[in-house]
């Protein structure tokens, strides 16, 4: 099975900060990498799919990059509504593993 | 508007069974792979199972193989998860999600239904 790791596991940041979250797969997953945002008590929300394609309605301050095994989610200027947990997810194999999540909270 | 509404969660004893349902609306259900994803209390997301548009292909995470069965009824726009031999570690919020094709994504999610396995 493909294992996904994320770093950091949590971070504290201020409104306006640039935030970067890293995701690593245990083997190459081509471009089959998605990012989700989850707020407390809510269902996850798709932010970015296929590494870098922004889901409709998602603000342009979110961006994704990477290839092979290493991927990055960047929030260019953190907004109050961005405080949440972020998960990467691979869909290269039929077992769609998620990363352990990165909790972004207010400094 | 695309909508997925789960039901069927509740409290069940270890070794017991439960059947979850997901009612879909706002899109052509039979055109999409569908999946179940779960989240244990305070933990991350775990994909559980998926099913092809016509039900001809199904996949499961290793921890539920032989115990859970995913199915669908395209005439009723509904997805199901039959859960048998339930264990404490199956306690989680179970989400229905549209998607599950290889190299795809989970674009739409339900609100989730809580399954608690406890004596």
Q: What string gives the helices and strands of chain A in order?
A: EEEEEEEEEE
Number of helices of chain A: 0
Shape field of chain B? globular
Report the mean per-residue pLDDT of chain A as an integer.
96
What is the percent of helical residues of chain B? under 10%
Strand residue percentage of chain B: over 45%
Run of helices and strands of chain B: EEEEEEEEEEE
The Cα radius of gyration of chain B reads 13 Å
Helical region count of chain B? 0
Return the structural class of chain A: mainly beta
Rg of chain A = 13 Å
Strand segment tally of chain B: 11
Largest interface: A-B, 27 and 23 residues
Task: Give the assembly state of these chains.
Answer: heterodimer
The share of residues in helices of chain A is: under 10%
Task: Provide a descriptive summary of the structure in words.
- The complex is a heterodimer of chains A (107) and B (119).
- Chain A has 107 residues and is an all-beta fold.
- In chain A, 0% of the residues lie in helices and 48% in strands.
- Chain A is built from no helices and ten strands.
- In chain A, a hairpin with a 2-residue loop joins strand 7 (62-67) and strand 8.
- Chain A is globular.
- Chain A starts with a strand and ends with a strand.
- Chain B is mainly beta and 119 residues long.
- Helix content of chain B is 0%, strand content 49%.
- Chain B has strands spanning 3-7, 10-12, 18-25, 34-39, 45-51, 58-60, 68-73, 78-83, 92-98, 108-109, 113-117.
- Chain B is globular.
- The interface between A and B is medium-sized, with 27 and 23 residues.
Question: What are the SSEs and their pairings?
Answer:
The complex is a heterodimer of chains A (107) and B (119).
Chain A: E1 4-7, E2 10-13, E3 19-25, E4 33-38, E5 45-49, E6 53-54, E7 62-67, E8 70-75, E9 85-90, E10 102-106
Parallel strand pairs in A: 2-10
Antiparallel strand pairs in A: 1-3, 3-8, 4-5, 4-9, 5-6, 7-8, 9-10
Chain B: E1 3-7, E2 10-12, E3 18-25, E4 34-39, E5 45-51, E6 58-60, E7 68-73, E8 78-83, E9 92-98, E10 108-109, E11 113-117
Parallel strand pairs in B: 2-11
Antiparallel strand pairs in B: 1-3, 3-8, 4-5, 4-9, 5-6, 7-8, 9-10, 9-11
